[in-house]
Amino acid sequence: MTEALTRLDHQYGSGHVRPVVVHYLNSVVSGLLAGSYREAVGRELFAAVARLTELAGYMAVDTGQPGLAQRYYIQALRLAQAAGDRGYGGYVLAASMSHLAAQLGNPEEIAQLARAAQEGTRGRVTPRAEAMFYAAEARGHALLGDAAGHAGRGGPRGRGHGPGRGRGGLRGRPGVDSALRPRVSGR
After folding, report:
1. Is this prediction's pTM over 0.85?
2. Residues sharing a CB contact under 8 Å with residue 48, sequence separation 6 or more, in sequence order
3. DSSP class of residue 173?
4. Which has the closest alpha carbon to 112: 139, 151, 131?
5. How many Cβ atoms sit within 10 Å of the Cβ of residue 97?
6. In a structure prediction context, what are the per-residue pLDDT tens digits for the chain, which is 187 residues long?
7. Rounded CA separation 159/75 (Å)
8. 83, 95, 181, 185: least CB-packed within 10 angstroms?
């Protein structure tokens, strides 16, 4: 369902699709969350709802509602935690929440959110996801004008990080969303 709603968002825009997502969350998903499930099924449900809730947050950003977006992102983070999906929680922190912080002009928060993603997912995500988290942190330091804040920190293998690419986020570009979403190791 989330993939279909994402396609609709790309085709028609968040202003038209966000009400459908909100209605689905309130009418269908809330009932599912009130149910009783085996642990594995419950975790899968929480993981799916985390993704849909993050999408609602993204749509709120897109429609100029940053406060609402933040609430959705916090809920998505809680749902990812309930699902035991640290990788997706890291994505919400380093991609969604840090992008919102950038839009709101809070570069220090960008770096802090990305660092939290790194610490919470250490050893549990792919190198690509780790790189995204380090890039988000570097973006925060760059916006702060803090070259020393990130220089020398290096990645998990001690490598330095180069400059970021462009000013905007990558979300919505063909193939980028799914490529950047972290996959938990061992799944």
Report:
1. no
2. 1, 2
3. S
4. 139
5. 27
6. 999 999 999 999 999 999 999 999 999 999 999 999 999 999 999 999 999 999 999 999 999 999 999 999 999 999 999 999 999 999 999 999 999 999 999 999 999 999 999 999 999 999 999 999 999 999 999 999 976 665 445 544 343 433 333 334 444 434 434 444 444 433 3
7. 34
8. 185
